[in-house]
Design a protein that fits this description.
Radius of gyration: 20 Å
Structural class: alpha/beta
Number of strands: 15
Strand order of the largest sheet: 5-4-6-7-1-8-15-14-9-10-12
Largest sheet: 11 strands, mixed
Number of helices: 14
Order of helices and strands: EHEEHHEHHHEHEHEHEHEHEHHEEEEEH
Length: 437
């Protein structure tokens, strides 16, 4: 089947409240985790928050406060993506527009806030907007209202693979002629007291309180868990013929996808990485390619001991000694949960478009199991890319992998992330005892 054109990108992440800021921040390779007053007194009191996000200026409508934070992120990212694609919802045929958004938890902030009100001040204090605030499908529904989209409007829930699953499902809709335009991605805002405490109780979060900015360390031997984060990523996709007909600029092409399950454990990945490897194989096969044509992998790379070891095993088994370049954005932006797959898909698109691989932040000493991988660290790397994979995995054993080809070279000066003299960005500075040296 023909590749699908990615014509629009929208991002809201801890590295920046739009695509340009996020790309620059990820290329700079500096962690964004910091102490979080909302988590004070909890087992883990730091997180990666979206900086300076003001829903009054980023979310359409007169009352953005009616939406949960995850819906606000989704609306902001989608608005940027649609504008980037050069599309006007007032002019398109809404019956041919689909919306597919993923989220791991939906409006959990609304749920927690209203639960506290019910317990402390009684039922009359609970807002009538509670259900529209926390139902997970509401981001997709609100976006459909704002975009006048009357095609399929769907929510995907595959834990931390939700955003990538949404993009794969949108590709199916486009390829089966169920729509002409797909707005797809993911959003989550799970930096809340309950979620942070629950993840900490599971032992999933880093406890590197001495230097939070260096806490998220994908593939590093001293990694001790992920850093909880928030954000959204949205892509606009079209068939190649439709994009060409309106002369739309193309960031990259979605060439293939793979969806599998580990069927192994409720939270732990299959230690051999069989499910993730099969998803990568599916993505390469549906792209009409062979493994040796894959030049880059944007890893799920959470920074937990099990995930990174499993993913390294899966990459080793598929590519052998000829490893493609490997990066993970979570060293910079933390783990955005259900948004992660969509955000990282967008970053993979930008990597292919700009021929620039962002570094893995805080990677100082690769763990033994990953030393055969071509891990990018220290600074961004210029690289020609034929095919790039974006890996996602989630609790429940969900795996989603997306395969992208680069579009035409972008006009203009080199992208941010590498200075004119080729100098590499600064690293997070922490005491030696916190660096894992």
């Amino acid at each position: 089947m023909a590749d699908l054109a990615v014509t629009g990108i929208g991002l809201v992440t801890p590295a920046g409240a739009d695509t340009a800021q996020t790309w620059a921040g990820v290329c700079a390779g500096r962690g964004t985790a910091a102490e979080d007053p909302a988590l004070a007194g909890l087992p883990v009191s730091f997180s990666c928050r979206v900086p300076g996000f003001d829903p009054r200026s980023r979310v359409p409508g007169a009352r953005p406060w009616r939406h949960d934070r995850f819906t606000q992120f989704a609306l902001a990212a989608a608005g940027e993506a649609v504008a980037d694609a050069g599309l006007d919802p007032a002019l398109w045929d809404g019956s041919r527009v689909a919306v597919v958004l993923g989220s791991a938890a939906g409006g959990v902030q609304t749920y927690e806030d209203q639960s506290r009100k019910l317990l402390h001040t009684g039922p009359r204090s609970v807002s009538p907007l509670t259900l529209p605030g926390f139902l997970p499908n509401m981001a997709a529904g609100q976006l459909a209202i704002g975009l006048r989209a009357h095609g399929a409007v769907l929510h995907t829930a595959t834990a931390c693979a939700s955003g990538a699953t949404a993009i794969a499902l949108a590709a199916v809709l486009l390829r089966t002629d169920a729509c002409d335009i797909a707005v797809a991605g993911g959003a989550d805002a799970m930096v809340t007291p309950l979620c942070a405490t629950a993840f900490a109780r599971m032992g999933a979060l880093s406890r590197r309180h001495g230097c939070p900015a260096a806490a998220s360390r994908p593939f590093d031997a001293a990694r001790d868990g992920f850093v909880l984060a928030e954000g959204a990523g949205v892509l606009v996709m079209e068939r190649d013929t439709d994009a060409a007909a309106r002369r739309a600029p193309v960031h990259a092409w979605l060439a293939g996808y793979g969806l599998t399950a580990d069927a192994h454990h409720q939270v732990a990945p299959d230690p051999e990485g069989h499910g993730l490897r099969r998803a990568m194989e599916q993505a390469v096969r549906t792209a009409g390619a062979a493994p040796h044509e894959v030049d880059h992998v944007n890893a799920h790379g959470t920074g937990t001991p099990l995930n990174d070891r499993t993913e390294a095993a899966a990459v080793h088994k598929l590519f052998g000694a000829d490893s493609p370049s490997v990066t993970s954005a979570k060293g910079v932006i933390g783990h955005t949960m259900g948004a992660a797959g969509a955000i990282e898909a967008a970053l993979t698109v930008l990597t292919a478009e700009h021929r620039l691989v962002p570094p893995i932040a805080n990677l100082q000493r690769p763990e033994p199991e990953s030393r055969g991988l071509d891990l990018v660290s220290g600074g961004p790397r210029r690289q020609d890319i034929r095919l790039a994979l974006s890996n996602s995995a989630g609790f429940g054993g969900h795996n989603a992998v997306l395969a992208f080809r680069p579009g035409p070279p972008p006009p203009g000066p080199p992208p941010p992330g590498l200075s004119h003299n080729g100098a590499r960005p600064a690293h997070n500075r922490c005491p030696a005892s916190d660096r894992g040296d």
